[in-house]
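WP5 quarterly update. Target: Alpha-methylacyl-CoA racemase. Source organism: Kribbella kalugense. Length: 373 aa.
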Amino acid sequence: MGPLEGVKVVELAGIGPAPFACMMLAELGAEVLRIDRPGGGPSLGPPELDLLNRGRRSAALDLKQPAAVDVVRRLVAQADVLVEGFRPGVAERLGLGPDDCHAINPRLVYGRMTGWGQDGPLAQTAGHDIDYLALSGALHLIGRAGGPPQVPANLLGDFAGGSLYLVIGVLAALHEAQRSGQGQVVDAAIVDGSAHLTTMLLGALAAGSWRQERGTNLLDTGAPFYDVYETADGKHVAVGALEPQFYAELIDKLGLDAPDRNDPAQWPELRKVLTETFRQRTQAEWADLFDGSDACVTPVLPLAADHPHLVARGTFVDHHGVRQAAPAPRFDRTPTSLDRPPARPGEHTREALADWGITEIDNLLDSGAAVQN
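Structure tokens (predicted):
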């Protein structure tokens, strides 16, 4: 099921953003075969809880052996997409770079996921989400006035600036290949995607309606009506009452005679009033008060919480005994769904290679070129 049913993807296993992108492709209906190294790679937990690997089978191949590389080339000949997240040049040294693969399959979409991109002075340098955000300017945006930048876990760089841009690029290249009959390389760099995410604020900066100083702007906690506030039980609520009609409902619900929000000089006093007010009730009490209103006040919940709206939509599900987010977005004719749980590296080597038409599997296993977990 899913709108990508019939699309075949070879994933050369990596960490973080490339697996997330392949997870999405699998949930959209593509058949994704993950090529793991024997023994697997780094993970935040045991393989069965590495949710980035859900939805697809794993075959373990030792790409240091020519026989294993030959297997990947034979998989590429059948594939629509290949995704790799190595440092620039690694795939080429393995004999699996874009030129190698396009010589086998000219229609192949070759997706490359890196932090710094395939070229530039930092291309061969190590980095992580926080570094790409820092250089792109995105990290500078996040934080309170007078304070340091705040780290948004690895959601903004790895997955928003990285994985989602890779998926968009792959889908666009697949669409173009239907017309041209030619594949192409998609160079998805987290630093590029993170910079691209700041487009609206770059326009505001040019217009003079955004300042470089953190915590002084409309959307970065500079405005007291767009911020988080502590409640009586030490939890928090988020307030996003930007538009005048929503702000009016906020003030009405709170029963306040508040300072003029249109006068920034009164913002410190308004913030003080809102801080003192929200500390008078618990988070649950505020949630009940604002439930169903347009005041744009919501409780700040922990991961995978059972809020009624999330329950009604099935935003989180229990799948194979693990609480996790359901696939997104949603489709009315070709619905997506959760399929396989995360696989152990090499769990499906024999069956997956056989399904892809590889015949000499016993020889591969005997030589160590392939490993069945």
